[in-house]
Structure formats: structure tokens, C-alpha cells
Amino acid sequence: xxxxxxxxxxxxxxxxxxxxxxxxxxxxxxxxxxxxxxxxxxxxxxxxxxxxxxxxxxxxxxxxxxxxxxxxxxxxxxxxxxxxxxxxxxxxxxxxxxxxxxxxxxxxxxxxxxxxxxxxxxxxxxxxxxxxxxxxxxxxxxxxxxxxxxxxxxxxxxxxxxxxxxxxxxxxxxxxxxxxxxxxxxxxxxxxxxxxxxxxxxxxxxxxxxxxxxxxxxxxxxxxxxxxxxxxxxxxxxxxxxxxxxxxxxxxxxxxxxxxxxxxxxxxxxxxxxxxxxxxxxxxxxxxxxxxxxxxxxxxxxxxxxxxxxxxxxxxxxxxxxxxxxxxxxxxxxx
Length: 335
Ligand SMILES: NC(=O)c1ccc[n+]([C@@H]2O[C@H](COP(=O)([O-])OP(=O)(O)OC[C@H]3O[C@@H](n4cnc5c(N)ncnc54)[C@H](OP(=O)(O)O)[C@@H]3O)[C@@H](O)[C@H]2O)c1
Fold this sequence. Notes:
Elements: E1 2-6, E2 15-19, E3 29-38, H1 41-47, E4 58-59, E5 63-71, E6 83-86, E7 89-90, E8 104-105, E9 117-121, E10 125-127, H2 134-139, H3 141-154, E11 162-165, H4 171-182, E12 186-191, H5 194-203, E13 207-210, H6 216-224, E14 227-232, H7 239-244, E15 246-254, H8 267-272, E16 276-279, H9 285-297, E17 304-309, H10 313-321, E18 328-332
Parallel strand pairs: 11-12, 11-14, 12-13, 14-15, 15-16, 17-18
Antiparallel strand pairs: 1-2, 1-4, 3-5, 3-9, 3-18, 5-6, 6-10, 7-8
The structure holds NADP nicotinamide-adenine-dinucleotide phosphate (NAP).
NADP nicotinamide-adenine-dinucleotide phosphate (NAP) is lined by residues 40-42, 143, 146, 166-173, 190-192, 196, 211, 233-234, 238, 255-259, 281-282, 320, 323.
């Protein structure tokens, strides 16, 4: 089969389109013929050598959707021909509150979805939501799951709360906007581009600010009168603003740090405001199932910013790295 293989972690984007053996289903696994895959920031980090535990050679890619073409011994509930999406979180374990020490994500160290076929444990496949195309289904898993756990399981968003989602153009952010809106929250966003802010408003955001403007914090406070819940994946210098815009008793959920570590954390301000800071990582199998239920109930559609063919995956990773798109970047694999 054709696959995108990472061969060298010393050199940025040393990815090759290669012919490799098609996986065979072992006990408890299924083999899926992928229709589409999707990119995540993790893939950029792996391909650029900045992801801990990276091994080579490896097929990268966490997100995918397709048709089951083989089942291993002991697989009872899934059959050849089933149309499925993949939960890329492997070995979460039994505790919904926290992942096990064996938790890992498809695409490193296990061969991933930037390929014509992928092998995956049967418990990680779920029926494809009927209202989604293959490309939309492939764009849902990792970002949808991460957004669901951060906003709902951890953030416990409530109707009529003011929710702030910085970086509206991000892959996870486009789900956060739609999930928060579906649950009746007032959604505020920030972005680097007016075009992306306009798109966020169309998705359901109430108002937005450009984080490149020096006065964005005050502008957001004027718009919202204060934030109840910020879902942060930015970190860095921006984090102190997330504390400043928070109401008394408000919450911040952190699931990433695109801008790196937070300098000079204003703990006294958090203390005096009685704020809560929560960490969140991807999600449990229950989160994944509940996320799909929410998406089906509200007929939520993933936002796809760009499409590439499998051979063009390195180009797609560069586009993600440059922040060119709004929403998810999809890789088309088969008809
Ligand atoms: N813990 C987990 O399980 C988990 C899962 C998924 C992702 N993550 C992490 O979460 C982060 C976001 O992931 P993603 O896939 O959504 O990434 P992404 O699609 O690459 O989005 C990143 C976005 O960050 C925004 N941004 C950059 N600098 C900013 C700033 N100073 N202020 C506000 N926004 C800023 C940009 O928004 P605009 O384009 O609108 O300007 C950019 O589009 C990454 O760091 C990723 O590693 C963690």
C-alpha cells in the first residue's frame, strides 16, 4: 500500500511517499481502508522532530475514516464493510477521569492514518455519523474529542455562560465554537485575521477581537462584560489576559500551549478572583461516544479549510504549520 513515512527526525518534514506492506488484522484488531484522513498540530510536531518519543520509520497521522476490510480473531461487533470513524486515543484505560500510563495516540508510536490502510483495535472504531461526508468524518475525531472534553467534561459549560475561545481559526477551536453554541453559551473568540473572525461569527460566535490589536483585552471585556469559561490552547504571554478577562469564580481549561510556556503567571489575581484552572488531554472512550452523540443530535458539521491528496501530505503539514487555514486540513485517500 501507499503510505507517508517519517524516516528522519533530524530534518524537518523528511516524509516520503512509500510502498509498504498492507497491515494484516491480528487478534482484536480491524483493518480499515481509509477514505480520508486529517491533520493535527501533533503531526507537525512529529514531522519536525519536536514531539517526545518519536521513532522512525513510522507512518504518521491520527485522524481517519473508512471502511472495514478485515477483522481479526475475537472481533464480534464490527464486520467487513462497516463504515467507521477512528478514535485515535489508544489504551485510555478504565478510569474516565484520567488516562492510564499506557495511553498513546495513533500515528506515533503505532503506524497511523496517512496511508491507504490502517490497523486499529476494534474498540477504537465507531459507526460513521450518517450526516457527515467521508472528509468531514475524518476531520472529527482528535479535535472533536479534545474540544468535547475541554469544554464539557472538564469545563462543564452551562447555557448563557460567556465562553472565550482564543485562536478561532484552529482545528479544535472550530468545534469548540459549535459545541458551545449548541449548548446555549454566548461564544466570544479571538483571531489574527478579520476573515477568520467573520467565519467564526457565521459558525455561531457572538463577537470577536483581533489578538494582534494591542487593546484586544479591553475590547473583549466591553463586548462580553467578563468571561465565565476560557478554553485555552495558546498559553504563552496570552495567558495573563485570560486571567484578566475572567469573572469572579470563573474557569480556565488548558489543553495546549501553541505559544509555549506561560511566563509570570499571575497567581495572586487568580487567587483573589477565586478562579479555577483545569488541564485536559484528548478524551476517554465515554467522551468520544458522547461527542459523537452531540454532533449527531445537533447535526454539527466539521469545518474543512483545505483538502490535499495523500502524496501532498508534506505540503499540507506546511500549510498547517503556517496557520493558513480556518478549521481542519483533510487528506483525500480513496473514493
Ligand atoms: N491536549 C490535547 O489532547 C490536545 C489535542 C489537540 C491539540 N492540542 C494542542 O492544542 C493546540 C491547538 O491545536 P489545534 O489542532 O487546534 O491547532 P491549530 O489548528 O494549529 O490552531 C492553532 C491556532 O492558534 C491560534 N493562535 C496562535 N497564536 C495565538 C495567540 N497569540 N492568541 C490567540 N490565538 C493564537 C491561531 O488562530 P488564528 O488562526 O485564528 O489566528 C491558530 O490557528 C496545539 O498547541 C495542540 O498541540 C492538544
